[in-house]
Specification:
Number of helices: 12
Helix content: 55-70%
Oligomer: single chain
Strand content: under 5%
Shape: elongated
Radius of gyration: 28 Å
Number of strands: 2
Order of helices and strands: HHHHEHHHHHHEHH
Strand order of the largest sheet: 1-2
Amino acid sequence: MKRLFLALFACIYAQAEEKKYADIVQGNSDVWGNARLENIDSYGNGFGPIFLQFQGHLQSSGFFAWLALGAVLGVIIAFIGHYAIIGPKHFDHHAGKPIYAFNKFERLYHFVAAVAWAILVPTGLIMMFGEEFGGGAFVRFCKNAHGLATIAFAISVVPMFLLWFWRMLPRAYDIKWMMIVGGYLSKKKRTIPAGKFNAGQKAWFWVATLGGIVMIATGASMFFLDYDIPAMRSALGMSQIEILRASAIIHNFLGAVCAVFLLVHIYMAVFAISGAIHSMIDGHKPEEEVYVLHHYWYRELLDKGQIAKSQFEAKYPRL
């Protein structure tokens, strides 16, 4: 009985000492006490409330992920409808002389970027729906593939940006292109106000390059979660946790935008214009396609003496 009493007393004493230790060390120390709140900004400051709404409600509840998936599916359904009602535009690939549009370097960088995006978008969506996929090895594989594809895109984005920067700057005729949606809502073929790249391609270019660079930066910030760069914090005037919060919000929203734009780009290049994808394989566009869909570029080449007058001037009026 005496031994039982001593054991019970020892147990009560140990619990009291443990609580006393916790109060002193965890409640009052600089490491476990106030400093824990000082090192991590309150959710009521800066990006905290936005992050709490986004991650705590929109993301964790699945609302944003389902919204992004809905946007992607909506675009796919719209394209199926367009293909069924309007159909693709066909241009003669044999009449006239093919026009050299893209050199080997342009096609190489575009190919690398295209493969990277084809991996980034689906793996990004799978990571959004990680819980639905049960997590585990498959989602981790997608996360690693996402990271490797990011490296491939990072290698291609700068040279691609420099190669096409001047051509991608907005022009006055781009407004006319947008007003008629590039003629894609009509079955009739007519000359379209566009240069070497049309307004839609230009929009995708800026989203893919500048937006892609932002995606790389925000993704890297989240991937290297604890890698603190004081110079960056100083330049942005933000704490490390604020940078992470902002990165998560921007990366998710911009990722959804990029996914939609990528689908538009694929549809236009593969389905809306029959055979258009071949220009990124052999570098040439058929003369009729250039004359109709890139009319101002045709006129530029003609004025510079780089091509002869097209036989399609007799079929389609010049702008």
